[in-house]
Amino acid sequence: MTRFAIALALLIVVLAAGAALAVGGRRHSGSTGQPSVAVNARAPDGVRIRVQVLNGTKVRGLARRATMLLRDRGFDVVEIGTIKDARDTTLVLDLSGHPDWAARVARVFVPARVVVRPDTSRYLDVAVVLGTTWRPPAEPFYP
50-130 is classed in which CATH architecture? Predict the structure, then answer.
């Protein structure tokens, strides 16, 4: 009878561990409904893409978080700010006629919409107007 009890306890432990791994794997796979940043969303090597980031939400500090994320991915954020008009969807403006650059920036801000709006008088390549649907990735905790 003791071998049966040990086998039963071992089976319960294995099933509980399997359930914990399944729940943990599902949580980290991006299936939580929260879009994740594309891994390959980076600036091309050797190219300087000048970006403006504007916060189109009421969330304080969102443009700063987006700036840090873009800079980590090799983009050159040269200007940040806030606009008064609140937006739902993040808007990526292609100002320099480089749709590939705008698409790379948009992959950082899933879901985002890309609009071509040529502007030769500005020194910017891409402008980003953050919307409420974009959620920044969690910041690491450094005690």
Answer: 2-Layer Sandwich (3.30)
